C-alpha cells in the first residue's frame, strides 16, 4: 500500500528551521576550535583535565564550549526529526519552534562558554521547552496520521 504525502504550502518554514541547525553546528565547531586554541588543549584530548580546568580559565571555557557542542549534537537528531514530523500538520508552529530552538542553542553556548554552567541556564529553559513542545507536536502528528480515517 502506497502512502502519498502532500506537504503543506508552509513546509518551507520547517526546512528553513532544519537548515538553521547546520549553521548552528558550524558556530559550535568554530567556537570550540577557538576555545581549544586559546586553552592550548591538544588533540586528541576531548577535554582539559579537571585539575587543569580548575586552575586555567581558558581551559575551563574550552571544556564548557566542548560540553555545549556535545549537548547540541545529543539533541540534534531528535530536534530535526521532531521538526520534520510536526511540520507535516503544523508547519508554521514547527518552523517557529525549530528556529527558536536553534537560536536558543547559540545563546546557550555563548552563555555556557563565557559564564560556565550557570551562564547557560535561561537559554537551557528556552531550548528545553521548545524541543519538548516540538516532540509533543510530532507525537500528536504521528498519532493523527497513523489513525487517520480509522475511527
From TrEMBL:
InterPro entries (UniProt xref) = MAPEG, MAPEG-like_dom_sf, Membr-assoc_MAPEG
Q: Which GO terms describe its molecular function?
A: glutathione peroxidase activity; glutathione transferase activity
The record lists the membrane-crossing segments as 12-30, 79-103, 123-147
Q: What membrane topology does the annotation report for this chain? A: Multi-pass membrane protein
Q: Does the keyword Cytoplasm apply?
A: no
Q: What is its main location?
A: membrane
Q: Where in the cell is it found?
A: Membrane
State any GO CC term.
Answer: membrane
User: Per the record's keyword annotation, is Nucleotide-binding included, yes or no?
Assistant: no
Record key words, sorted = Membrane, Transmembrane, Transmembrane helix
Which protein is depicted? Membrane-associated proteins in eicosanoid and glutathione metabolism
Source species? Pseudoneurospora amorphoporcata
Amino acid at each position: 500500500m502506497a502512502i502519498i504525502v502532500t506537504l503543506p504550502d508552509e513546509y518551507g518554514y520547517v526546512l528553513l528551521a532544519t537548515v538553521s541547525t547546520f549553521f548552528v553546528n558550524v558556530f559550535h565547531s568554530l567556537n570550540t576550535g577557538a576555545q581549544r586554541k586559546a586553552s592550548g588543549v591538544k588533540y586528541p584530548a576531548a577535554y582539559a583535565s579537571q585539575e587543569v580546568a580548575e586552575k586555567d580559565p581558558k581551559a575551563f571555557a574550552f571544556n564548557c564550549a566542548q560540553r555545549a557542542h556535545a549537548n547540541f549534537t545529543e539533541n540534534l537528531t531528535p530536534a530535526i526529526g521532531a521538526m520534520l514530523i510536526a511540520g507535516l500538520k503544523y508547519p508554521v508552529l514547527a518552523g517557529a519552534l525549530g528556529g527558536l530552538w536553534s537560536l536558543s542553542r547559540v545563546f546557550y553556548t555563548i552563555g555556557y562558554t563565557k559564564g560556565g554552567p550557570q551562564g547557560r541556564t535561561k537559554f537551557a529553559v528556552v531550548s528545553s521547552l521548545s524541543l519538548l513542545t516540538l516532540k509533543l507536536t510530532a507525537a500528536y502528528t504521528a498519532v493523527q496520521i497513523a489513525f487517520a480515517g480509522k475511527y
